[in-house]
Amino acid sequence: MKVDIIGDIHGCLDELIELLDVLGYRDKGAQWYHPDKRQLVFLGDLTDRGPSSVDVIHLVYQLVMKDKIAKYIPGNHCDKLYRYFQGNNVKIQHGLETTVEEYQALDRKEQSNVRNKMIKLYENSPLYLELPEVNAVVAHAGIKESLIGRQDKRVKSFVLYGDTTGETLPDGRPVRRDWAQHYTGDRWIVYGHTPVLDPRFVNKTVNIDTGAVFGNKLTAFRLPEEEIVDVPSKQPFVEEKFSYFQD
């Protein structure tokens, strides 16, 4: 088994399609495939902030649910969009407003199509993904070794938001502990959630959210090769978004 794990997309469709091309994935009309039968893994935060969240949902749904060459786990933005589509009272902010604007511009039939695809993706996804064939675990914001194997509220909070302290930064972001510094396991933990300028390797963990939506790049981590592949972002660069846990 060979896998390509892709970091936070946040509605950056053009960058995603370019990265798929660089990774060797091909679209033969109505179906995507890889000539070497590699598998994609999306580690969450498909939508929000970027220009094409609806089309990213369509593409990821096709790759996961139809073509079955990809796996998906949700991020915190996916979780919030799911709750919005369920009719829950969520705050339309922190990027969700861009997805909602796209969604509300659609006719009712297409709204139903998009909503149903996102709900199905979310409800068929695990909280995190164990990949024993390549000795890895994929979790949106990471996962402590002691939590692997569990499925509970504590685990859900950790994999969606990270190791939060309950405090917040002046800009409203939660204060998070740098859990990766204390990881001692022998399995790769591949995650995203916190934008970094370059993939951040700490112990046997790697953060591949390289801030595509903030103008940096969209990144994939290939296993078992342990290889980084990336493409440049087409979005404006926002330097202040890359201040957290830089080495």
Automatic annotation (TrEMBL):
Domain Calcineurin-like phosphoesterase as annotated: residue spans: 1-196
GO CC field: cytoplasm
Sample GO molecular function, one term: phosphatase activity
CDD domains: MPP_Prp_like
InterPro entries per the UniProt record, alphabetical: Ap4A_hydrolase, Calcineurin-like_PHP, Metallo-depent_PP-like, MPP_PrpE-like, Ser/Thr-sp_prot-phosphatase
Pfam families noted in UniProt: Metallophos
Protein name: Diadenosine tetraphosphatase ApaH/serine/threonine PP2A family protein phosphatase
Organism whose genome encodes this protein: Gracilibacillus halotolerans
Upper taxonomic lineage: Bacteria, Bacillati, Bacillota, Bacilli, Bacillales
